[in-house]
What does this fold into?
Amino acid sequence: MTNLGLYLHIPFCNGKCAYCDFYSAFTNEELIDSYTTALIREIKQWGGKINRPIDTIYLGGGTPSLLNYRLVPLLNAVYESFNVLDNAEITLEVNPADNIFEILSNAKKAGVNRISIGAQSGNDTELSVLGRRHTVADTEKAVKIARELGFGNISLDLMLGLPDSSCDTLKNSLDFITSLAPEHISAYILKIERNTKFFKICNTLNLPDDDAVSDQYLFMCEYLENKGFCHYEISNFCKENFESKHNIKYWKCEEYLGLGPSAHSYLLGKRFYYPRDLKAFIKGITPTPDGEGGDLSEQIMLALRLKDGIKTEKLPTAAVKKCGLFAKNGLGILENGRFSLTNNGMLLSNAIITEILEEF
It folds into this structure.
């Protein structure tokens, strides 16, 4: 059987960022205890059903680092319930505003070997506008402590297209982020989502227009590539051999199990998810079926996010011809039996993918 990825959703935050639409709840220690107990219950139940090697574990949120000392019993439950490979990639998302030395020390004890730090910007004013609780100095401190504790795989998150931003402000953030020498950078364009503070006040935000955001994205791609980062996915860059193994499973339609409210799974050709309801999860609600997964159109849609792209032998002739037109217009590369998107093409990926799938 192929290896499986495991995602654990930790739906707690000490505050809600102005742009965030992920499922999370304000918390207290008692609620975290109850949730950890419920999550361990689910881990043990699923471990009894699945005999598959686990090669990636990802603790996302929310703010998973709020588990702190609970990381040890939680991951111990995973090791006891599943066949976790010795070289498994185990990622923890961290907010640099929290008690970072204690959290990272407990993460190390728990077996975490990859840290994803929510830096978002190298500018304190931008961080304040985003509603982040940390400062630039906090990010620098978090990376320093992680290195001192022996973490050799650090990813930093960066946002672009922020209010009042430009290529100049983005360069300042990129200068700061790269000065910390991370192995991986995830860079996301700000999207205004419903049910967020930014959605309510969007008319008051001085957001760059689409052309300006495109300029920022292309500037960032060139900047990071010149710094030796491989642009391996639309929003992700890494030093050699430091791709996010867990996230690559999503883009390659490989199977994974997600546990926790709002967590999605793809297992044995089926997709399912847990409802966005913390109390219901603690009480033991079962996941909701979400249909079949992994068909050719889905494979193409996800694979075109990756720099490797897709094999054209999977495409009908008309779709290959369209790929040729995209390549002529500088939006893609069509060679050696593969089609992939250029940086310019990645900016229009949704439209390009839609046109290709229209030929099926």
